[in-house]
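Worked problem 6 (solution included).
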Amino acid sequence: MHKIEKDSSLYRLAVRVARIFEPADNEFWITRFLFLRLLGAIYTVAFLTLLNQVHPLLGSRGLLPVHLFVERMETISGSSWTAFWQVPSLMWITSSDSFMYALCWLGFSLSLLLLCGISSAALLVFLWVLYLSFVNVGQIFYGYGWEILTLEVGFLAIFLCPIRRPWIQLQHSPPDKAVVWLMRWVLFRVMFGAGLIKLRGDPCWWDLTCLLNHYETQPIPNPISWYLHQLPPSFHKVGVLFNHLAELVAPFLIFGPRRVRVFGGLLIAVFQVLLIVSGNLSWLNYLTLTLCVVCFDDRQLRVLLPTKWTLSCCHPNMVGPTSYDVSPARRSLSYALVLGIAYLSINPIINMISSRQVMNSSFDYLRIVNTYGAFGHVLKERNEIVIEGTSDTVVTKSTEWRAYEFHCKPGDPNRSPCFASPYQHRIDWQMWFAAMSDYRAHPWFVHLVYKMLTDDQPTVDLLATNPFSDSPPTYLRAVLYQYEFTGPEMITNAWWTRRRIREYLPPLSSDNPSLLRVIASFGWPIATNSD
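Solution. The predicted structure is:
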């Protein structure tokens, strides 16, 4: 074998990789610099999703109007003040469409500032309050783990910046190392909670067979999911073993010595990249990758990142550790934060070790410390709801039905799966859940059908195609199909094969009395000719 010359590219790469595991200077200036910008990217996507979907989902004429939710909470609680403390949100001021749009634009603008490097405690407080306001009133459309994870990480990020002088430049204030450790505690709970709930939830995680079905039955597959599904069972078993390594072993490594911590952080980061490649899980994996940044010190990040990214970004001289006096007030705040997080962690810890572990739940109204988990149960079959319409005035056996297509949810078997993450098409996600049970368990779905029948444009814009763009259909129905990925042996352009199971929702017209009674019972507006 040829010797590796010291001036060769391979040698320089080997040295660069080896330096990652050298003892670091235990400074976190670059760590904070990179972390806050990645968090800015997450916030940007979150508020962009809100901007595009808040009106048809949560607006005054949306599928689940916020003003009705607020009124219901006030009735249940007995007073608006009590309801506010149970559901903290700026929407208690007003839940008008214009006010919510203004908050969305404010959040999006502040997110861009954070992404561009304008960091301050005040800015992060505004972002956290704004997003908390939407999550707390978003109902089922905002009931996902990445929502509360965004809030928990966003809350802790406030304390990476100076609190006493909230607009001071970060170059003049060192990051609080206690906050770095608290971020690692979040990362631990995200990963270890997901690992535990898998072992408790489905035997396939024990016999290493879960990935035989996962790529096909996950909420929103992407094109790479099809190729991964075709791989041999031995590959999938190795994948499950790596899943257990990343979720059950690596979380403990991030609290170890520097070399161990870096190795654990790299394992989790690689795992998150694989999840990003294999499916569309919104920004969950991107946010977990952001948390992985706190596993690295400045010296290690200088090795990993281009030099131009680390020069003059956050450290006054960027030549090594510098001594800074930490004021008694800041030290007291740090102690109080650690004690507060420790207290709020009691319930999540109890839940994590419980045999009845629940996932993606909050134990405090501000969503500061939460419990997480994913895919405690892996579906063995994929059912999909296909919504179809017709212009016929009378439904017969010969009626021609035309299907609506969603942006990413499987529909037409010949249509390719999509790449969407970190963006989330929320209505597509809810359709995945709706297919698991009867439509009566999902009133929003009935409301969706009614709005499609009455040609509500914001609602129809949530979909990818509208086969009735000239005039609304006279009838809509929903059919439940079982979908399976095609195999490599099939000479076809189709990505899916499907088999009809049953009618999910019978044909309905916009003036159907039963449908109108349901709409009225929830307080949703009845469409008029002027609409």
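Discussion: The beta strands are 361-362, 370-371, 382-390, 402-403, 475-485, 496-508.
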